[in-house]
Amino acid sequence: MCDLLDSTRTLGVPAVQRSGGSFRMPGEARRGDERREDPCVSQSMYDGTGGSTISDCNLESDLSSDISSTHIANSNGRMSQYQLHTVIGNGKFSTVWRAIHLPTGAAVAVKRVQIYEIMDAKQRTDCINEVKLLQAAANHPNIITYRDSFIENNELVITLDFCDCGDLGGLIKERSDVGTPLTEGDLWSIFSQLCGAVSHMHSHRIMHRDIKPSNVFLSAHGVVKLGDLGLSRYFSSKTAQAQSMVGTPYYMSPECIRGQPYEWSSDTWSLGCLLYELGALRNPFFRTGLNYYTLGKLITSCEYDPLPSHASPELSQLVAAMLQQDAGKRPSLHDITRFAEKCQVKYRDVRR
């Protein structure tokens, strides 16, 4: 069954080699992958090119100080502990490898970032931020597991558990191509796990800000893991809202699209878009030939087609509750999780 669900996606970056593995849902198949820029390169929805060499000694000193403050410079990790196999993704300043951790034999993803070549201070900060957030959000079964990070040969090396079954975006595309919807049982299983992951992040005062299918990774036995924390934001106990416009436009909340301050319920909106996509096999605001302005109008007016006729009443009810213009009227993540778990139990044995 592994060859039915093979994938080239692991960390939300474009892949060039296939890897084995299967996300075990009865009778499903998927192929293909989807382009995604590297989170350490803040390129939003467009490609960038180039790269420069830094010769500023003050910059290297400042960066070394930042890295030391994240407690990664003192790591005992070494590249000699990893056997690199295939490149599974490339960014402007980074390469991601499928590798084996030799001391344990575990399959891992090794991300090597040429951090001293990144000229833009925000991009460098995003890389350090990614490590901090991976550390803070660790120890949850539905979040990509951070293993280690260290500096070697002027590279920032980040290692994470390898998800060998691709991402949810690829699974949805495969199902769409063959016209086979997810069963309600599988849909609610996936969504309940994601609610648990986002709840864990919010409990650590971390907003993801880029929840979408291509950032949800699939592993064996039906386990899903939320990844790509490069755009996440930590909120101190005194921080109530964020204002920077980040994320993927199709999954942005109305307040974010408008450039207004936003808070935790913006993640709720993105989860609602993902839930709709699990049921309809497409984003609620997707239209052929859509430009950014028209997309923004659709999102801010909450204009989307009804879910397909096979969708359960519960699915339609929860999507409608989550995709509300008024952020204050969206249900809490706690209530969403409880509702999703009840649906998971109700539809657990429903298979088509």
UniProtKB/TrEMBL annotation:
EC assignment: 2.7.11.1
Pfam families in the record: Pkinase (PF00069)
Comp. bias intervals (Basic and acidic residues): 27-39
Annotated positions binding ATP: K111
Record region (Disordered): 16-41
Alphabetical list of InterPro entries matching this protein: Kinase-like_dom_sf (IPR011009), NEK_Ser/Thr_kinase_NIMA (IPR051131), Prot_kinase_dom (IPR000719), Protein_kinase_ATP_BS (IPR017441), Ser/Thr_kinase_AS (IPR008271)
Superkingdom of this protein's organism: Eukaryota
EC class name: transferase
Family the UniProt entry places it in: Belongs to the protein kinase superfamily.
Record protein name field: non-specific serine/threonine protein kinase
Organism name: Mantoniella antarctica
